[in-house]
Design brief:
Strands 6, 7, 8, 9, 10, 11, 14, 15, 16 and 17 form a 10-stranded mixed beta sheet that branches. A 5-stranded antiparallel beta sheet has the order 1-2-5-3-4. It has 8 helices and 17 strands. With about 325 residues, it is α+β, with helices and mostly antiparallel strands. Strand 16 and strand 17 form a beta hairpin. Helix 1 (about 25-35) crosses helix 2.
Length: about 325
């Protein structure tokens, strides 16, 4: 194979690679061509859309290359290993020496990553918690034991020390954490109370999405209950997680034909609304939503130090309450 490097792309290293054999996996071929980067790193770059060929983005690391096929891989400059503390306002529900419970707003990324190196929940926690962080794995950082999608709001618990981090992680693994969400969804599920089970894994056609898979994936189980109906067009549901897979509620609700409103990734965007012949005010409001109408309303667990059972509740954010008012007015 032949490779060349274009450093004129600024902070990003742009590599041009030409395959010289047929049939190799794309990630393996690129890792062989770029020995200074691990195959895991290469795979992540591919899945994050950093690779193109003939002007098209390729996101499947397992793609089989053809001899003479040309690829361009953009490798962003390395991010600092340690996130920086940033003064970002947090809605703190509870805090002690061992943990903190916050109400995360929609739009806030949980952890720094390429493309989101600052302005995240971790950056905010480093500034807020300061010296109360005694260290996770020998590093003064908050212990993230579960996550919410960027566009999902609601309750999260974060550990301040190793003991709490391990204990909470064990509780999540043992599925003894009580988590309830409320979501506004298109249509009305029937029956009104039920359980959705279906393995969740990467979508075969789009690796940036998740899907319910007949083969492969990981077991996922979501309980739901209709709280209120808005005609036959939409409803407010409560979902309780028995497992914690990526995008679980969004994927499971879409799988039964009732995607979360405002979630274009899984069919809940305004195109669905237009098919329902809804008025222009509601359509306009959904377009302005800062994410899907999904909120973590309840979080309960055993406190790792006191062993007390604790439970925290959160009200729906203003965006969801306003959307409910619009649905009720139809």
């Amino acid at each position: 194979m032949t490779t060349s490097n274009d450093s004129s792309a600024g902070a990003t290293d742009r590599h041009h690679i030409v395959a010289d054999t047929d049939g190799n996996r794309l990630d393996r071929m690129l890792a062989d061509a770029l020995p200074n980067h691990s195959r895991t790193r290469i795979k992540g770059l591919i899945e994050n859309g950093q690779l193109t060929s003939a002007g098209a983005t390729i996101t499947a690391p397992s793609y089989r290359v053809k001899s003479g096929e040309e690829f361009t891989l953009d490798i962003p400059a390395a991010e600092p290993a340690v996130p920086q503390a940033e003064e970002i306002k947090l809605d703190v529900i509870y805090e002690d020496n061992d943990l903190i419970v916050i109400d995360k707003p929609s739009g806030l990324v949980v952890h720094p990553a390429p493309g989101n190196s600052s302005g995240t929940l971790v950056n905010a926690l480093l500034a807020h918690c300061g010296e109360s962080l005694s260290g996770i794995g020998g590093v003064k950082r908050p212990g993230i034991v579960h996550r919410l999608d960027k566009e999902t709001s609601g309750l999260m618990v974060i550990a301040k020390n190793d003991h709490t981090h391990v204990d909470l992680s064990d509780q999540f693994s043992a599925r003894t954490i009580n988590r309830a969400y409320q979501a506004l969804i298109w249509g009305v599920p029937r029956p009104g109370i039920g359980i959705i089970e279906g393995n969740i894994g990467r979508n075969r056609q789009n690796r940036k999405k998740m899907a319910v898979l007949e083969n492969g994936g990981k077991h996922a189980k979501t309980g739901y209950k209709v709280i209120k109906r808005y005609g036959d067009r939409a409803s407010l549901v409560e979902c309780r997680l028995a497992t914690g897979r990526t995008h679980q509620i969004r994927v499971h609700m879409a799988h039964i034909g009732h995607p979360v409103i405002g979630d274009p990734v899984y069919g809940g965007g305004t195109s669905r609304a237009r098919r329902s012949s809804l008025d222009t005010e509601l359509l306009s409001y959904i377009k302005k939503l800062n994410g899907q109408a999904l909120h973590a309303v309840e979080l309960g667990f055993r406190h790792p130090v006191s062993a007390d059972a604790v439970k925290f509740l959160s009200h729906l954010p203003i965006e969801m309450r306003e959307l409910i008012a619009l649905l009720e007015s139809l």
